[in-house]
Structure formats: structure tokens, C-alpha cells
Design goal:
Shape: globular
Number of strands: 31
Strand content: 25-35%
Largest sheet: 7 strands, mixed
Radius of gyration: 26 Å
Amino acid sequence: MSTPGPVRLEGREKVTGTARYAAEHMPPGMAYAWPVPAAVPRGRVVAIDAGAALAEPGAVAVLTHENAPRLKETDDGALLVLQNDRVPHRGWYVALAVAETPEAARAMAAAVRVSYAPEEHDVVLTPGHPRLFAPDVVNPGIPGSRERGDFDSAYASAPVRVDATYTMRALHNHPMEPHATTARWEDGRLVAYDSCQGANAVQEALAGLFGMDKERITVVAEHVGGGFGCKGTPRPQVVLAAMAARHTSRPVRLVLPRAQLAAIVGHRAPLVQRVRLGAGEDGEITALAHEVTTQTSTVREFVEQAAAPSRAMYVSPNSRTTHRVVALDVPSPSWMRAPGEAPGMFALECAMDELAYAAGVDPVELRVRNDSAAEPDSGKPYSSRHLVECLREGARRFGWDARDPRPRSRAEGRLLVGTGAASSCYPVFHMPSSAEVHVTEAGRYRVRINATDIGTGARTVVAVIAAEALGVALDRVAVEIGSSDLPAAWLAGGSGGTGSWGWAVHKACRALIEMVEGRGGTVPPGGLTATADTTGDIPSDPPHAMASFGAQFAEVTVDTDTGEVRVRRLLGVFAAGRILNARTARSQFIGGMTMGVGMALLEGSTMDPRFGDFAERDLASYHVPTHADIHGIEAHWIDETDPVLNPMGSKGIGEIGIVGTAAAVANAVHHATGVRVRDLPITPEKLLGGGGGTGAG
């Protein structure tokens, strides 16, 4: 591992409280808004009585579908709020209270009286649901089904077989900063300070909804307190705040209450995943099927690509990967923490562990034997793939060779101790971006690009890329990010931010150097500015498959009296191209692994079939890891050179850390107890014989 690397450029602002987030901008004359969510799971609004609400002290207005500004049609139906009387799911916004203070707005919202005409609803996913269909494409536009070879024959003739179904409940993001917007209109221009992962995406959505030129809209996301996918696309709060500001002719701030997030800002839909693996006596895979059943909403179709990782991971000459989905009367699912790879690799990597036991092959060795230099589905060679090196190095650091492979073979008093391993993979995305670099006569540089820092250290890594490309010290480079008035760039998502932004910044820096050299090395009094756009640099069909890889190892203890699982050790080794800043990279890796622990042991929400909403709607009932849950955690990486990727040789690292962790923990629990839990999260009752999708294995 390299030296720690530079500290975050915005660190002092954050710890001193001077970094301003979306809800910390204070335009004069501001009003405050509070939404009114629907109280039925499906139906229509018959009447809204706002009289009592408008009689509250400090009341300004109540917006409903009868008086709210009209919006243009859009592909994302979740943004068409207060446009008609329909209620597609419980929690859908039916009114918005606006007042002089946040407290008054909340009191107004509680006083709004809504009458409904309820309709029959369907909110429960079942594997045999009669309305299941096979989507043509799944997120992010990849084929919903793929088949190679003859899976049925190969599986039937395989001497070693695994057939297992893995399930998980809905998962929700709970960023520290809730979704928030402060919006104001000035002379026909809209300015929105929004908590989002990409100001350009929000700008374009608002332009379409309000029928405006996007140049008349500025969206600012200078500091964002966590995104995780739920801020990857515009959410209703920015639309409602803009509507309320237009309606009242005042700036309006709207911060979504945490209890409403589960129904409004996207989530990971529940999943049922059947994985079948057929292999030879040596454990080499000859047949692989990964069949996913999930749900979407009636508002907007979103299908997580959970079967897609099985198309890229291991040797599989005969393969079937499918998705089936049903549209239910539920909130719209969306992107969440390594979408597709996180849940899909949980199922695949647990199935690989089951195959290792069935074939009598060490779990690490099994993965090594099934490594593939080319992506099985496309046949393209990987630009770099060092999965085996990650597995070997992780096993060495973890002390894997000392492991007794027999389940339930190690005890410390009433604690059973087990270890597990899993691989991880996340694709590399490059999206067109633009950047500007300016140099002053004094030799100071300023980089301008609409990147977004959601807590990952984006400002710092952009500065590192620029300083290296320019050949100057880091303290001579300043960075402006987080506004749609800056050169347009890809959002912070899909682990594609750094690669996309860095490519544009690097290109602009090299262009600036050529400009200076063309002037004999001198800079005029007004300075020089270079711009760059990578639209023409990114191939639409690259000749190589590109992905980050990793290996995770976990040691757990299971209390035989209580069934409590504790993660004692967690170790990850990653191959993610060139690491640009070791300090922030390590932070992202361990953050991802911490999220993986939450996915394995704590997180999950329950859909109430009668009321049609998620029962766990706050951080008291929806559990995420705390410091007490994370003991020894280590992140390492191998030096990986990949000249094919981009000028920096970097891959995305934001999500690779989470991908294999849940499976490593689940596999360690099986090794400790001999009980195979195939339903997440792994809770005590599932280990103590209380049901919940357990099975011996």
C-alpha cells in the first residue's frame, strides 16, 4: 500500500461547519414546506380540506393537484407530483404545506384533511405472481435475459450440482443528510440548492418539467451529505420546492422528513434469486443459471440487474441469466449501493460456497479454478483482471490456510467461530464529461467541472489528477465543483465519477500545457484557459471488458444461546486500477465493507400487506451498522497497471467494497454453525430454528 495521500481539500470547512449543504442556504424572505403523504395504498383523492391548515399561525399556502403549477410530461412519473388525483402507492404526496417556519409547516401538514376513494391494492411479491413478465432491458439498459450454450443438458449431466434460492427484503438508503432543496425564482430564472448526486441531471429534469431552457436554471450541489444512489436522479423534493417557490413568489426550503424517505426516494426492491451451478468433480463450472424475480412500481419501471454479475464473473460455457418482474402498488425502486452487483453477487458467491462444499474444494481455490481472462458473456478480454491475485493476497493476509474447513469445528465457550470468503466485481463506466482549467500569470491553477462530492473526496482526487497532469504541486490547484453553471459532467454514481471527471480534467490540463508551451512558456496577464470534452474519446463499443475486482474475507462469532452474530474480522483486497489517493480510497473501501455488514446482518424492511407501506421508516427500526458492530476491518489493494482504461489508469472504487462482503459474512456464518441462511438479513431466529429461509448445507 502506498503513502496515505493528501487530506480532503474541504475537510476544514466540514469540521468547522462552514461547508453549506442544501438546507443551509438562507435567501431573504424564505418560507418552509412540509409534504402531506397519501394515507391509502391505492385509489384517488376525492377532496382536500385545507381550511384548518390555512388557519394555523404562520400559514402561507397549501398546494394540491387543484392549484399547483402544471408540469410537462416526463419519463420519470415519480416527479409528476400534485398533477392529478391518483394515488399509486401509500406515501405518494397529495399536498404541500408552506409556512413561515418549519414548525408551522409541519403543523399545517398535520391539519390538512384528505378524503380518498380507496381501491384494491397488491403490494406483495411472490415467486409465482400471475402478472410477472420478462423485461426487455434492466438497469442500466442491458438485456434482461441472456443464454449461452445448453444449460439444461449441461446441468443435468453435471456430477456436482447446487440449486439454491436466496431472498432478501427491501433495502433503503438513509443518508445523514436527508433529501433537501432550497429554491428561489428571480426574473424568470430558477436557482435550486439541491442535495443530489448530479446537478446537471436535476437541471435537465427541471427544464423539461417546467418547459424552460436549461440555461435559465442553476442547480447547486456544492456539498452533499451522502447519496448511495437514492440521490442519483432528481427526487420530488426539488420539484415541490420549485413549484412552491413559484406559487408563493418566495424562496422555499423543503427537507424531507426521514420517515417519508422509504416511500419517496427509491429503494432496493425485494429479490428472489435462484442460482443453479453444475460442475465437474474438480469444481470447474460447466453450467450456470441465475434467475431473478423482483418487483417494480406502477409509476416507473426500474429492474435491478441482479443476474448480470453472473454473466461476467466465472467460466460458464452454458449459462442462463434472466429477470422477471411484476408492477405492484408500491413505491418506485431505484439505484442503491452497487445496484445489481451487491444483491446478485450475494447470491452467486453464496452458491459458490455451497459448490465448494459439494465438490470438496477449498472455497478460495474453487474461485481460482473458475477464473476467466475474458468476460464470458461478451467474449471480450478484460483490460485487466487480477481477481486471483486478490484472492491469494487476501488469503495470505487473513491466514486462510490455517482454517479447518469443517463447519462447526471451532468454538470458544458458547461462541462458534467461522470464516468465509467471497469475490467481488464491479464494472467500469466512463461517461462524457467536460472541464475547464485556468492558469494565472502567477502560476496558480483553477479547475472547473460539475463533479459532485457526496463525501467520497471528489474535490481532492480531481485536484490530484490536475496537479499530476500539470506537473505542479497540489497546493497550486484550486477546484470548483457542484454547480450546473460549471462545465457539464457525469453524476457521482456507478463508481464512474472519478474516471469520467478525471479524463476530462486530464485532457484540459494537457491542452493548457500546449497553450503555454505555444507561447514560449509565458502566461499573459489575464491568464490562459483551456477546455476539454471527452464525448468523442469514449468508444461506444470498447474492445475490452473493464471492471474492478476484489476478494473479501470475514471471521464471525455466533452465540449459541442468543443466535447473535458478530463480525470479528473483515478484510478486503482489491484490484481497482491505479489508486489516485490512498487516504480517500481506503475510506471508500472500508465504507463499502461496512455497508456490506449492514446488508448481511441488519438491514431490511417489511412491507405491510394491509396498509401497503414499509414498517421500518427511521433509524430506530431500520438498523445500520454502528461503531460497535465493526471491529477489525482492513482494506488493501494490489498495484494494477491498465493503460486501456483512461489517461489516469484508474477504475471506480466507490462500490466494489460492498459487493462481496455480505456473502463473505454469510459464508462465515455457515462455517461457524453448519446452518446455511439464504435469506438476508441473518438474524438470530434464523439460526436458532425459527425459520426465515434457513437450510443445512
